[in-house]
Structure formats: C-alpha cells, structure tokens
Amino acid sequence: MSTLAIVGAGPQLGRAIGRRFAAEGVDVALIARSRTTLQAVADDLSDMGVRAEAFPADVTDRPALHAALTAAEERLGPIDLLEYSPAPSLADLRRAPLVEATKVTVDSVLAQLDLYLLGGVAAVQHVLPGMLERGTGTILISSGAGSGPVIAPHVANVQIATGGMRNWILNLHAALSGTGVYAAHVAIAAFIGQGGHDSQPQTIADAYWRLHTGRTEAELVIQDLPDDYLERGLADKFVEP
Fold first, then answer.
1. What value does the CA radius of gyration of the chain take, rounded to a whole number of Å?
2. What InterPro entries would the database entry show (predicted)?
C-alpha cells in the first residue's frame, strides 16, 4: 500500500487527484490550511475504502508543513508519492496582489516565492531522502503554465516564482535518473472546472496517474485556455463576487 501526500489539497483538483489514486488503492494524506475543506475531501476518499486523513498546515509556515508531513508519515506510513499544488486564497490575493510585468517589485515577488518555490522545496526535501533510501517514489509539482510554456504578463510576479520552481523540477527530473525516484512538472493552462473536457479535474487527475505510471516525461503541459485568456484574467474562484 502506497501513500500519496497532496500538499495544497482543495475541493476540485486535489479531490480529483485523491480519488484517482485512491481508486488504485493508494492512501492519501491531505495538507492545506482549511481543516473543514480537508476533512470533507478525506471523508469522500475514505468512502472509497482507503485511508485518507487531513493534516492542516500553511505551506508558508515551514515548521507547520514539516509537522504535517511527519504526522502523515506516522499515521499512514512512508510517503511514496508527493503532489504539490498550492493556490492563493482571495485573502492571499488581497494581501499580496498579482502584479503585471512592468510593475513587478522585489516585495511583490517575495510572497510568491514563499508560497510556490520555497514551500515546494520544503515539501520535496522532506520526502526525497526517504524515497532515495527506498529507491522508489514520485514527485509531481504543479503550477500554472505561465511558469514557462505560456506567456501571462498580467501575473508576472507569480510567474517569477513558478518559473523558478519549474526550472528546479526539470533539473531534479534529470538528477534523479537511475535512482528509482521520478519527478515531473505539470503546467496547467486551463480554468480548472470551467472549460472543456481537458479542463475538468478528473481529466487532469487521469493525466497525473499516467505520469506516475509512465515515469518518463519531465513535464506535462495541459493546454485548454480560451483564446481570450489574457483579457479574461483570473479563474472565477479568485475573483471577488
């Protein structure tokens, strides 16, 4: 029995990824800030006959993230699979707004580095030593496709952080060759749950499972943005009603 830790687990993609892996008998540790959201997803996954538990933590609080991952290991066993896909809340966006390319400042980038790049480094470095020791493991790191494959100047401060994360994971993929541990980056160019078939959480979750079982690609780009994505701006869940 394997254990998957989903860091940044939410009610859409996180739930779908959890369900896809749970369907294969994988236990799931769910990590994010909202205990209520996590517990609802955990209850859903538990109904599929696997162990699924919530471990609330903020990825920008490194000791809390470490404690959550440690608790998950103690409860569910070694983490064989890690999926990292944090997303800002509306409160995050009010505190640290998105900035377009001509207005980027040092301060506007720092909060994004904390959420995406540094949180990702902390999560990976927690699980990677054990994976290398066991000679097996999967690390899937997700971001918007503005991290490299797609141009998104209206969120440039985020893309500085996610671009760094993408570069690191592509290099990690190469560095892990022959170790039995697999790492890949997933660049999501889609309004998840709002577009066509390729934007639906279950479709994307199926792609994650194929990455995990295929273990060859350094990067998967999910491209399902409308032609007017630059004018449209953010996904609906990040826009105040």
1. 17
2. NAD(P)-bd_dom_sf, SDR_fam
The answer to whether the beta carbons of residues 208 and 17 sit under 8 Å apart is: yes
CA dihedral 184, 64, 55, 15 (to 10 degrees): -40
Contact yes or no for 173/183 (Cβ under 8 A): yes
Q: Compute φ and ψ for 122, nearest 5 degrees.
A: -60, -45
> 105 in helix, strand or coil?
coil
Tens of pLDDT along the chain (241 residues) come to: 699 999 999 999 999 999 999 999 999 999 999 999 999 999 999 999 999 999 999 999 999 999 999 999 999 999 999 999 988 888 888 898 999 999 999 999 998 999 899 999 999 999 999 999 999 999 999 998 889 888 888 889 999 999 999 999 999 999 999 999 999 999 998 877 776 787 888 999 999 999 999 999 999 998 877 655 555 555 544 444 4
Q: Could you give the CA distance from residue 43 to residue 18 in angstroms, rounded to a whole number? A: 11
Return the amino acid letter for 143. Answer: S
Token pair for 25: 């008998």
> Cα(122)–Cα(31) distance, rounded to whole angstroms?
13
What are the tokens at 52?
Answer: 């699924």
Contact 97, 107 (CB under 8 A): no
Output the six-digit token pair for 141. 């790191």
Pairing between β-strand 3-7 and β-strand 181-189 as defined by DSSP bridges: unpaired
CA distance 40 to 44: 6
